[in-house]
Amino acid sequence: MYITGDIGGTNLRLSSINGKDMIHTEYYVTREHPTLISAIQDFISKHSIKGIKSCCLAMAGPVDGKHCTLTNENTAYKYNSEEFASTLGFSVKFINDFQAIGWWIISRFVTNEAVDIIVPNALHNGVKLYLGAGTGLGVGYVAETSVFPCEGGHLRFGPSCPIEYELVVFMQKKHNSQHISYERFVSGNGIACIAQFFMGKTEAQLNAYLGVTGGSDKMVSELISLPASEDDQPSHVAINANKGDETFKKIMAIFFNFYGRAISDLCAGFLPSEIFIAGGIMAKNMDLLKDAFVNKKFMDGLYDKGRLSHIVKNRRISVILQDNIGLYGCCECLLQNE
Fold it and tell me: Which GO terms of type biological process are on file (predicted)?
């Protein structure tokens, strides 16, 4: 019996797996448990799990051997796998959360667990790139049968017009940092920040940026509102965009444009044969991505590579729909390293 976990800054999911069969699964809000170890102990006790051989945890942050700090956690606490093993009574291995997805891609990918959104003359061999926006922007890659973690989501975002330079300055002040990465925009918090910035612009300015004619001198803040808590803002924007609100849809179109640009820049670095998009934001907003306007903005960002646009145009791009890829990936990692 194995214990596997997908550990994020906001949520965590635990499972028990026997062989390759998932037996129990529990979903937790991270802040509801005083420690990660206590959450695992609660899970084991609740399901009376016996005969645990080992545990693998996919951590949402860089893993340095036996140590890890969660990138988007509100504390700089460094987790130690040896401390986990000593307390829990079985061996514990940390891997990067997107490294776990790589293991899943190698060993468990079947067609009904992902949907193609672009199907050109795919090569199907060589490097496979995968990324996904959620609490942050995770990136990883697979080369043949090897899986590699990567922090490509922290590549610097490159503004391409005056209003985007303003947006970067807004983010630099908000985060008290000169370095503004793609993750600051292509993430749940990124959706909130994009909305906050454009609420300080007029409808005409928002439309001009998006290449839409018309628009009034009304402030965007007069057309839409956001919940007081930033934690609630991303879902508020996405839900209302999916309901058809035109202003919220424009905010999500900007988000998807930046998503496409992130994929495009990563393609230039990795030259992948295939690209897999994971993360809850994309999977939950597939219907919105089918909207003609939103889809065009995503594709505009994706192909915004000038002379190198062809490096994206001949790659297969798929959205992963399997919810438990991190858990299955951890299990595969344990099985392959027994």
Answer: glycolytic process
**Around Cβ 162, how many Cβ atoms within 10 Å?**
9
Q: What is the DSSP letter of 157?
A: P
118 residue type, one letter? I
**pLDDT band at residue 73 under the 50/70/90 scheme:** low
Give the CA distances from residue 86 to residues 81, 89, 91, 92, in Å, rounded to whole numbers and listed in that order.
9, 6, 8, 9
Structure tokens at 195: 């909305």
Tens-place pLDDT, residues 206-252 = 999 999 999 999 999 999 999 999 999 999 999 999 999 999 999 99
Instruction: Please name the residues in contact with 159: beta carbons below 8 A apart, sequence gap of 6 or more.
Output: 165, 167, 168
Amino acid (one-letter) located at 168: V
For residue 299, the Cα-to-chain-centroid distance in whole angstroms is 19
Return the amino acid letter for 2: Y
Q: Report domain extents, the chain.
A: 2-107+324-336, 153-320
Residue 110's Cβ-count burial label (10 Å; 0-12, 13-18, 19+) is exposed
Burial (CB count within 10 angstroms: exposed 0-12, middle 13-18, buried 19+), residue 171:
buried
Exposed / middle / buried, residue 214 (Cβ in 10 Å: 0-12, 13-18, 19+): exposed
Q: Is 114 within 8 Å of 322 (Cβ atoms)?
A: yes
Prediction pTM value? 0.85
Interval 303-326: pLDDT, tens: 988 888 888 887 888 898 877 888
Q: What percent of the chain has pLDDT over 90?
A: 62
Give yes or no on whether 2-107+324-336 and 153-320 have one common fold.
no
Rounded to whole angstroms, the Cα distance separating 105 from 147 reads 9
Q: How many CA atoms lie within 13 Å of 248's alpha carbon, on the beta-carbon side?
A: 18
CA 99, CA 103: separation in Å to the nearest integer? 7
Q: Which CATH class is domain 153-320?
A: alpha beta
Spatial CA neighbour of 333 closest among 28, 105, 126, 131: 105
Q: Looking at 264-329, which runs of residues are DSSP E strands?
A: 274-278, 316-320
Class (C level, CATH) for 2-107+324-336: alpha beta
Residue type, 212: V
Average pLDDT estimate for 34-50: 93
